[in-house]
Amino acid sequence: MNLDKQYIGTKAGKETLEKVVHEMEVEIKNSDGLHMRPAMQFVDIANKFDSEITVSNAQTNVDGKSIMQISMLAATYGSKLKIRAEGPDAQEAINALRELVEEKHFDEPMPGR
Amino acid sequence: MEIKKGIAVSPGISIAKSLIIDSEDYLIPRRSIDTSQRMHEIRRVRNAFRNAIEELTRLEAAQDQTSSKIKDIFAVHMRFLHDRSLRKKITDLVQSELVTSEYAVSNTLRDIASHFTKVKDAYISERAADIYDIERRLLKHLLGKKREDVAHLTEEVVIVARELSPIQTAGFNRTFVKGIASDAGGRTSHAAIVARSLGIPAVVALEDLTALVSGGDTVIVDGNRGIVIVNPDEQTTEQYREYSREFEELEHKLDTIRGKPAETRDGVKITLLGNIEFQEEAEVVLEKGGDGIGLYRTEFLYLNTDTEPTEQEQYEAYSKTLEVFGDRPVVIRTLDLGADKYTQSKRFVPEPNPFLGLRSIRFCLQNLMMFKTQLRAILRASVLGHAKIMFPLITNRHELMQAKMILHDVMEDLADESIDYNRDIHVGIMIETPSAALTAHSLARDVDFFSIGTNDLTQYTLAVDRGNELVSTLYSPVDPAVLRLIRTVIQDAHKSQIDLSVCGEMASEPECVMLLLGMGVRTFSLAPPMLPEIKQVIRSVTIEDCNKVARKVLSMSNERHISSYLRDAARKILPEAF
Known about the structure:
- The complex is a heterodimer.
- By secondary structure, chain A is of the alpha+beta class.
- Chain A has helices spanning 36-46, 67-72, 90-103; strands spanning 3-7, 20-27, 52-56, 61-63, 80-86.
- In chain B, a hairpin with a 4-residue loop joins strand 7 and strand 8.
- Chain B is of the alpha/beta class.
């Protein structure tokens, strides 16, 4: 797990604290991967937050709130995704999404367990 | 101006603005729009999403005690329909490429689906099916509007479609639908048959016509030469107006022979009957001088509604037609459903090979309640005119005996209830499978008449799907194999002294009529609008000429030679008809 915290735009003054960016890498742990139902759970949680959420794999960056884009990542078991949240509740968003992917693994079985 | 060559399936010429009907099962062709229509198309995309969401909400609410799997599917579809970036992708495509909303929806979702199919993981790649579902749902709403347009036309149009179903075609309002042009189809596809019966000029097998036409373009349909012209120039339009006038004059001339007998030059009387399905067509048969109905298709009763028609509804439909014809014969064919979209879509699992599956009389023998209801309705109506009953697609004697036994059961029931019916009603069968043709001598013992259905007989003998443009050139009723079977049936009918008629498309082709006359056929049943032309043919030939043609053709072994020989013979003997 890799947790960064950055502050950007310090020169602007007032809004600095709201422009919080959090990034984290997560690994898909359920055996069927990020198919439709997990993609749906992911965007449902992402949509609860005001922050902009982007998800990337080695090739592309997609909008974490769009089921079309998330499902098109076609992330299979074991793939690693980078989640980036930017906005007032970035920290909470990242935590919630990490919990879904890595701890709850979308309430789906993991291989060999 | 764009000129496309197809197959002429229904004669006549029409010039009108196009109305495009797409089917959500097919690839929607790329069609351009005007810059000024952009906002309109974008609104249509938004409305389609909104309507799809409403529909899905309704469907979801209507499902009680659904499994969590199905709930998930609904939920996923809902997320997609609410996904702004998906909607934006589609409206961006409309904006940047100036294409119709149908095309933008179809193209975008198929792109996404193909992205899924490329993923190696089976679990994820199967998700493409969900995307296709969403595509269909959106298209249904986009195309639904146009379907309503067809039902409420206020100006003359030419219908342009990828493919038309017989039901769609039968629903066309003859006052406004002036022509039909489709990408798919062949001479004997059912929609072509219906177009011909209704007298709407039609050209099919135009391959990519739908991609060339935009709604509202002026289109000429030349159902005589098999040509469709998109956005014709002034000179061409004028030329076609002239053709159209000439054609109407010819039609008018043919109409004048209506009252004259169908008799060959050497005095042999021929019976000409009409093939019909709808009540309106019965009137066309009378208008065109037919001697009765040789094939009354009854499928329409079942296809126009979602529920099975009641005995009374059927009785009323048959009664109307029988009363119109008085003592002239009306051959009612029992239900010939199956092997089509309608029965297949009602099935839980579609049959893998419906043309060799549960269709026609087989379907009836497995759905006895439905079959008995139809037979009761026919028998009750039989006292009102000269009704005959015909069973379709008989393949062996056992089926025939079963069908007859059920008919007798129904007769006994009616007698028990003291309901009147014609006890001597004639019962016949369609000969439309090679097995029936080859065993005609034994089938003849138990029936009053045969009717040769040359369309299915050709299709089953040559193993060719007549609607599949990839192989439709192999389909020919004058193939030596088909002709041998037809000859066997004619000879066996004559030996057993039972009536015989030909009711396939062959009966409406002048050169085939000469051949069939020479082979001994004296009763023909055909699409009503063709009656005057075929009567003209009969009145121009002698049986002796026809016998010569038949002898020659039956000695030939090559379908192409037979076709060209028949064309030449017809040209020599019937100069006016060609």
